[in-house]
Structures are given as structure tokens and as C-alpha cells.
Amino acid sequence: MGRYTGPSCRLCRREGVKLMLKGARCETAKCPLERQWRNNPPGMHSWRRRRSSEYGIRLREKQKVKRYYGIFERQFMRYFSMAERQKTNTGAALLGLLERRLDNVIYKLGFAPSRAAARQAVSHGHVYVNGRKVNVPSALVKVGNKITVKPSDKSKNLIKQQMEELGEPHVQNWLSLDITKLEGLVLAMPSRDDVTIPVEENLIVELCSK
What we know:
- The mean pLDDT is 86.
- The chain folds into two domains: 8-98, Ribosomal protein S4/S9, N-terminal domain (Ribosomal Protein S4 Delta 41, Chain A, domain 1); 101-186, Structural Genomics Hypothetical 15.5 Kd Protein In mrcA-pckA Intergenic Region, Chain A (Roll), CATH 3.10.290.
- By secondary structure, it is an alpha+beta fold.
- The protein contains eight helices and five strands.
- The chain has a five-stranded antiparallel sheet.
- Helix 2 packs across helix 8 (201-208), helix 3 (73-84) packs across helix 4 (90-99) and helix 5 (102-108) crosses helix 6.
- The protein has helices at 8-15, 54-69, 73-84, 90-99, 102-108, 115-123, 153-166, 201-208, and strands at 127-129, 132-133, 146-149, 175-178, 183-186.
């Protein structure tokens, strides 16, 4: 199954939270979750749905995280296997790995309006890590990595235009940003508090551990 290409807002309505799939538009009154008459799951009989089962509750948490970071099932399970091998809490380790994805870092630095746009910017070669072009959105950043924009007028103008539309970004503590040079620096590993989406990671661990 390929990547989902349907309406993005449908995914947010299904999960009941803003997944920030459309960038700045998600912060406006145009977001369906801001409209009372559309703030419900998609489907013509959504109001008749029964209470979710224990499995359904855990599945929704996993789907929420997958759609938030824009990854496939196989990718998600690979990250989960990596998190299981760590000595820390598996759920927190899983979210930490997802936060370290290059496309997520580009989004957090304000270089792109959404994670989908960040993946496109990375895939098209507009992003450099430590002075070398990296076109793999799933690449994991490390402490000390410097993220810069490709030294070309086309790349710089593209990123500057997107940053002007988004406004000044609110960079988290584990990252630093030099707007004039269009440079970002990874200062530390992301913590559980840096994950902004409301999710109960222990339910995901229970589901994937079976």
C-alpha cells in the first residue's frame, strides 16, 4: 500500500487531534476541528459508532503517531524494535527516535510548513547536514549535527519564503536556530516533553509487544 493521498483533514478528524498536516492552515478557523459541525470522525454514520474496544483504543494511539510523523507501518515497527533494544523506557525511546528524524527536525526549525513539505525539501536536496547533502528524510540526527540549507539561491529563496509565511518559529530547547544564516544545530537529544502531540505511548508498547 502506498502513501495516503486523500484529504489530510480527514486523518485529523479520525484521530480527534490536530496532526498539523497542512501547516499554518491548521492554526486558523478553516481547520475542521475548529468547526463544531465537522468536529467528528469521517463517515456518514460516525454518530452511531459504538464504544471502542481495548484493541481499538491502542490501535488509534499507534495510528495517531504514524500519521503525525508521516511514516509507514514497516518503518514504525523498525523504530519500535530499535526502541526495545534501548535500556530506557520503550515508549519514550520510540518517540525520541521519531523526533530525531531529519524531516521532523526541519519542520521544528521552521524551514517547512509541515512534515510532508519537509520530506519533500530533504528529498529534493535542499538540506545539508554537517556540510553534506542528505536526501533521506528518515535519517536520524545526533547531538552536534548542523543542519543548513543548500548554498544556492533557489534553495535559500524557497526556505526564506516558507519561513516568511510561517512567521518566527518557536524552536524547542534541544535545537537552536540562526535565522540569518539559515542554520540549525542539535544541542541535545529530544525528551518526552518535546513531543507536542497528546499520546499515551504505553498503549502503543502494549499493542506492539504482543
